[in-house]
Write a structure and sequence with these properties.
It contains 8 helices and 8 strands, in the order E-E-H-H-H-E-H-H-E-H-H-E-E-E-E-H. It is of the alpha+beta class and 341 residues long. It folds into 2 domains: 9-206, Alkaline Phosphatase, subunit A; 253-319, 2-Layer Sandwich (Arylsulfatase, C-terminal domain).
Amino acid sequence: MAHSYYPSHLWRNAERVPFNQPAIPGHRPQALGEVRLEAQTSEHYAPTRMVTEAERFIAEHQKDQFFLYLAFIEPHVAMHPPKASVDRFPVSWDDEPYRGQNGYLPHPRPRAAYAAMISDLDDHVGRVMQALDSAGLTDRTLVVFSSDNGTTHPAGKNPRFGTGGVDSAFFNSTAGLRGYKGSVYEGGLRVPLIVRLPGRVPAGSVNDHPSYFADWFPTLCEAAGLKTPKGLDGQSLWPELMGRRGRPKHRPMVWAFPEYGGQVAVRMDDFKAVRQRLKTSQPGPWELYDLKSDPNERTDLASRHPELIARAEQILRDQVDENPVFPVPLPGLRLNKSATP
């Protein structure tokens, strides 16, 4: 359902909520004729409903402790934000319509549409902040904002457009980082993270401590004063957020990604080991990058540091289980067999 912003239904926990009749499918190329924005819209825009539900939830629970997980879909493709949002951006940006040749829906103004989705997301986050203000909860609510991956990747049929019509080069979306969504290079993994807790997290401060999503379960447990379960992959970032000195180094971070040919990455302090094409007949070699001096991952240091490649392989042996549902073969490595699908 995430590929359409005008779906037939949404889910409120286990409740199926009817939404649009007719619904708009997320995939429908148009090779010929005028590409019309009006053909891609229906009555109810899903993100608007989602932020309205969040505002209601905050108002109803303002006297309680609560956890609100709000997974906005913008700016995922297909791109079909409301016309009023698209019209906020210059017509001069777009001299060619996107016809769906790289998947998803066509759009007459793809650059404006992408900007509109990001701007709408910004507005929706602002509405959540206003709801906290109205409930008197701003000074005692930890707000965490982040993304799940880097910008969408290029596609082959028309180099002007990436997947779904996104022109990431126009927006400089990767800021020079290597790779895109679906990659274990930094362009696929490194995303913004913004945290707000007035009076506790210093406003305007910047923290370069590396972390990943597995860290947020123990972080939220510590923030809420709850006992943290044992055996988690992540470690709490709460001391970092509070500005405490003497921070411990982060344990190695592991990504085992079965898609896009099969990939793994292991971050060890400032070094990251990468191996790709693991599910093909010719798996790629190990690569190694020093992210402190080479954040764009241009200089492969694997041949100079065989001891770090050996360490990465041992970390994978220790931390990655065999998984029959999402297999990631690792040539030459015997993994644990204790995974539960």
